[in-house]
Amino acid sequence: MMGREIILRLLAGMLLALPAAPALAAQASTPKYEAMVQRLRAGNLDVDFEALRMAYTRSDYYAATDDTDLAELRGQMFQALATGNAGEAGERAQRILDLVYVDIDAHLISAIAYRRANDDAKAEFHRAVAMGLLQSIRDSGSGGSIDSAFVVISTDEEFALLRSQGLKPMSRSMVRGDGRAFDVVDVSDDAGHKGRLYFNVGIPLGQAEPEIK
Fold it and tell me: Of 78, 117, 118, 146, which has the maximum CB count within 10 A?
């Protein structure tokens, strides 16, 4: 059986295990969430992933998603992967993506499941989507201060970004500044180096969408 640490390493390793994702061009317009998801499902990675994430928060999917059901599906997905059942993990991941196509962990676990099923094309597709979503968070700021905080649409995005950078959260708190809310996460890497990152959590708290830097 695999423990939590191995699961985290698998998710982080998926970012490096396959060839680099293709360059992703930004779109001049901002299509609706459903249209952007349809384009991705058709295999077209020429999508503005920051616009996709923000479009999701303005869609009916965002308001209709039950956090309890989603948390249960995520728990089942991670548990299936922990017990070595990649097929079941992939099935749960797909159910999450039907609800939240911008879920980074679900794309990474889908990539793992397809890779173990020897479907490298689909594995690379889901990894590329995850990479695009992660890069859109990195592009929103440097995370080094309140003024340069990463903009996230969920706390799950915080942890996905930390894993992608090889960082472990040591403590987490919330502060407010300029009428906005921020998660402050103290982190460390495998070498023991410590740091602090800031995440703008206005969107999941129902505040106005911030301007992306």
Answer: 78
